[in-house]
Amino acid sequence: MTTGPAADAGDPPSTVDAYQSEILSAITPLAPVRLELAAAEGCVLAEDVTAAVALPSFDNSSMDGYAVHARDVAGASRESPAVLRVSGEIAAGDVGAYRLAPGMAIKIMTGAQLPAGADAVVPVEWTDGGSAEVAVYQPARPGNAVRYVGGDAAEGETLLTAGTRLRPMQIAVAASAGRDAVSVRPRPRVVVLSTGDELAEPGTPLVPGRIWDSNSYMIAACVREAGAVAYRRSGVPDDPAGVLPALEEQLSRADLLITTGGVSMGGEHDVVKAALRELGTVTFRKVAMQPGMPQGFGVIGGGQTRPVPIFTLPGNPVSAFVSFQVFVRPAIAALQGASDLSLPAVQAMLTGPARSPAGRRSYLRGVLDGSKVTPLSGQQSHQVASLGRANALIVVPEQETQLPAGATVDVLVLP
Ligand code: AMP
Ligand code: MG
């Protein structure tokens, strides 16, 4: 992206989409590492995972019952059961080579190898459960309760593709494919710094003029939820000389830096902006959105250390939250090489009117319930109470200033 002090308060605002793509074009994915499967959960695959063998790799039973020749039980009924001699038992894990003779049955457990010659399994529920002899009350078609070789996946089949996040479902697939280690992009290390002389740590007494720091906790939680590692540094004072050293101190442990506060349009107290503008590698601009209008993005470091991308988010908690979801979350995903960059979006019907300033895209806190979404009251950017009730962000496009109840809107589903 264009970095440096070029874009600033006087320039026309960027659109959300343009700003998003500028950010993404400046992000390079982290180098892949090979991790043991247990440690790779939550990371993003940097390789495809293929089936080393066909899955399953041998024909086996899907039920506890009896392996039979289907033709031997073809006419079975409760009145006139097919009675077969039971010649043995095969448990799951038994690696012996068994063969079923015609007119006989072999007791078989779920997951046990089907004996050679058998073509069906009669579930125990269809029989008298006998040990030496079994009475079968119901016919079983060929293939009944049999899981065939390759019925799940063929040998060599691609099961997971690079860019997939390893959630529990995908961990199951990798393990089932025999993988003990995978090549993944690691969880990015993200340092979160809150700035402001007014900030007090939660748990300490509050005096008028001070507020408890919520941003550093909130953004650190957002970072972890996005699959990264968060380091929180709270309450960096509004001292222009102190901000840069506080950031530089974090560079060695950061793949990404996020600050909150100190980037408003006005005063000399906007210390983050003042400190970083000097570097010439971070751009401050207005983005046509609400909340979250003042934004900064660029890189710091370089020279001896690797340059680290930095987001300077506005201080109001809801502005910081929305900015994270819209800009930072996709950047964290891009660092991981993930294919799922944004929050899931759905369409829903507004249950009440929604307003938005002209020319800006609004993200309103809302409650999504099935196909309906209700805007919450308390939409100002300092109002965290409504944030606590929200499970979605309602998107009101730039060209709309008012949407009536009944209108269809795009909704971002919060994690
Ligand atoms: P600023 O962007 O620094 O001008 O801050 C804008 C508003 O956000 C002010 O009302 C700040 O007090 C508030 N704010 C800034 N940082 C935090 C924080 N870490 N937690 C809660 N509120 C904050
Ligand atoms: Mg401030």
Concise description?
This protein is an alpha/beta fold and about 425 residues long.
Structure description:
A hairpin with a 7-residue loop joins strand 20 and strand 21 (308-313). 18% of the residues lie in helices and 30% in strands. The strands form eight sheets. The chain has a six-stranded mixed β-sheet with strand order 16-13-17-21-20-18, with helices on both faces. It has a five-stranded mixed β-sheet with strand order 8-5-7-6-9, with no helix packed on it. It is an alpha/beta fold and 415 residues long. It binds adenosine monophosphate and magnesium ion. The site of adenosine monophosphate (AMP) has 19 residues, from helix 4.
- Which geometry do the CA atoms define? elongated
Helicity, in percent? 10-25%
Instruction: Write down the overall mean pLDDT.
Output: 95
Tally of helical segments: 8
- Structure classification: alpha/beta
Outline the biggest β-sheet: 6 strands, mixed
